[in-house]
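Hi R.,

As promised on Friday, here is the backbone we talked about, encoded as C-alpha cells. Could you run it through your design pipeline when you get a chance and send me back a sequence?
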C-alpha cells in the first residue's frame, strides 16, 4: 500500500477514483447525487494555492482510503493548522490500519511543514474512530459546531 498526497497535476482517472470512493461516504449521509460536487471540490482542492490537500491510500491501482483537509490560520498559535474535513476508508478495507496510516502520514507532513496542530470532529457515538484519534494523541475539545449555508 502506498500513501501519498495527490499532486496538482493528478490525472482525471485518479480524480475520478477518489470521487468514486468518497461517493460511498456521501451516500452514507444521504447525499447520493453528489458526484459532480465531489469532482468540483477535488478540482478546486488541487488548484495552486487552494490551501486544500488530499492524501490517499492506494493499493494495486485502487484507492482504499482518502483524507481531505484544509489549512487555516490559528490566531492563538501564530501559524497554520489543519482542519481535517474527511477521513474515509472503503468499507471492505476497514479495520486494517489504513485510517491510522493516513493520519500518521498527515501528522508527519504537518510536522515537516511547521503546522501548529490538527483539528477534526467525529460523531459522538463513533467509539472506534474516537479510539483511533486518542491512540494518536488527539484529545477531546468540547465545542459545538455551527454551520451556515447559502
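Update: got your reply. Pasting your designed sequence below so it's all in one thread:
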Amino acid at each position: 500500500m502506498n500513501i501519498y498526497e495527490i499532486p496538482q497535476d493528478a490525472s482525471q482517472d485518479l480524480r475520478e477514483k477518489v470521487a468514486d470512493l468518497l461517493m460511498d461516504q456521501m451516500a452514507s449521509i444521504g447525499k447520493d447525487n453528489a458526484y459532480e460536487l465531489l469532482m468540483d471540490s477535488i478540482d478546486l482542492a488541487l488548484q495552486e494555492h487552494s490551501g486544500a490537500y488530499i492524501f490517499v491510500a492506494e493499493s494495486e491501482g485502487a484507492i482504499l482510503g482518502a483524507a481531505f483537509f484544509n489549512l487555516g490560520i490559528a490566531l492563538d498559535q501564530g501559524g497554520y493548522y489543519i482542519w481535517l474535513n474527511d477521513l474515509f476508508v472503503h468499507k471492505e478495507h476497514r479495520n486494517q490500519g489504513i485510517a491510522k496510516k493516513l493520519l500518521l502520514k498527515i501528522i508527519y507532513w504537518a510536522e515537516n511543514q511547521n503546522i501548529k496542530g490538527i483539528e477534526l470532529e467525529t460523531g459522538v457515538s463513533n467509539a472506534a474512530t474516537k479510539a483511533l484519534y486518542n491512540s494518536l494523541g488527539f484529545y477531546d475539545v468540547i465545542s459545538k459546531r455551527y454551520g451556515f449555508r447559502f
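One thing I noticed while checking it: Strands lie at 2-5, 52-59, 62-74, 79-89, 118-119.

Thanks again,
M.
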